[in-house]
Amino acid sequence: MARAMLLVAAVVATLAGSVVSQADDVPKDRCGLVAAANEDGRLEVFVLGHDNQLYHKYQMDGDDEWSNWGSLGGKYLRGGPSIVQAADGRLVLFVRGVDRAIYYKAQTEPNAAKWTKWESLGGRFASSPVAVLSAEGFLHVFAVGQDRTLLHKYQFDNTTSSDLDWSSWQSLGGALTSLPSAALDAEGLIHVFARGPDRGLWHKAQEGGVEPRSVRWSDWSSLGGVLASGPRVPYLNDAVGLIQVVARASDKAYWEKHQTAEAGVSADNETHASPGWSDWSCMGGIFTSGPASVLGADGTAELFGRGPDKALWHKSQFYDGANLVWKKWVSHGGLLSTGPEVASRADGLLQVFARALDKNIYTKVQSVAANGTLEFSHWQNLGGSTKSFPC
Questions:
Q1: Is the pLDDT of residue 17 over 70?
Q2: What fold characterizes domain 2-13+26-390?
């Protein structure tokens, strides 16, 4: 099947004229919320209201106790937020406004319920932003420009004051037909993934040079496939520090691709390992949303999606002796109107969120059963009257 996916991608690539005109003709993934963890481990969820303002709700001291919904303003937002924890522990939000510029606001201090005012980072964009914290503790923001190229803005140290300055927006090229997905590898370098006009997965990454000492961006490279959604990268890498990417393909199944350690020979004839990429592997299932993925406490991947029955479906990895294998797909019920969101709790267990048909946000919590196995609770209603947004 992987060979068939690549063959179709090759055929599509030969129809360049029609591909460009059909770049946006695939089903649109919709999300209902974004979840993030505070520095103290309490989860916080962010939704878009029908008034196009951003609202949030956060866990209180008890895991099952939640605050009321509160507005974070930002009237006339054009999509959902991207949330990242800054180096000082504060949560920072990035959104696209009605003027198509990128805006951000942050907690006044770590774990605080109060937030700063919205500030503009300028620009005009065709997508919501995606943010990531670099290994140096600086925030990096990515968004798709109106010409479908990837634009990038980042913080850098202003040695004349205690504040951090922002760079200007810089183009990283490409021709993107999905929101980008960004992640750090085990060496602290940033990788960006997106769906291209040929429906394949495209990849761009920072590269570290020793002589002279520098970090630069690689060219865009194709990782093949025929994607019907944007790629999703777990917040953390796998147990050995390699990146794993999951996307919904044109057959509506989830497909997976991951870095592999390949042996090579350096210029001085010494053997070394360098990351390559595996072939595409089918995860099965039929889905009406893009995937949500996260790593469990033991470093194995957990995968969630919305099925054609509108229920939440789940697949997880486990160690079978020395090998890492996947379990079968399991339904967790529900009537979802968007794709799910999954977060890792302070105790290492998972919590899943989704927007239901009644437009409220619902959640399921993982727990350890009496026999030592993991199970999920019943759906709990967190309320709200929310609006879905592209993701």
A1: no
A2: Neuraminidase (2.120.10)
* Average confidence (pLDDT) over 320-327: 83
pLDDT tier for residue 2 given thresholds of 50, 70 and 90: very low
Query: How, if at all, do strands 386-387 and 43-49 pair?
Result: antiparallel
Say how many residues make up the chain: 391
Task: Read off the tokens for 261.
Answer: 């350690």
For the stretch 194-213, pLDDT in tens is 999 999 999 999 998 766 66
CA atoms within 13 A on the CB side of 90: 16
Every domain of the chain and the residues it spans:
2-13+26-390
* Global pTM value: 0.88
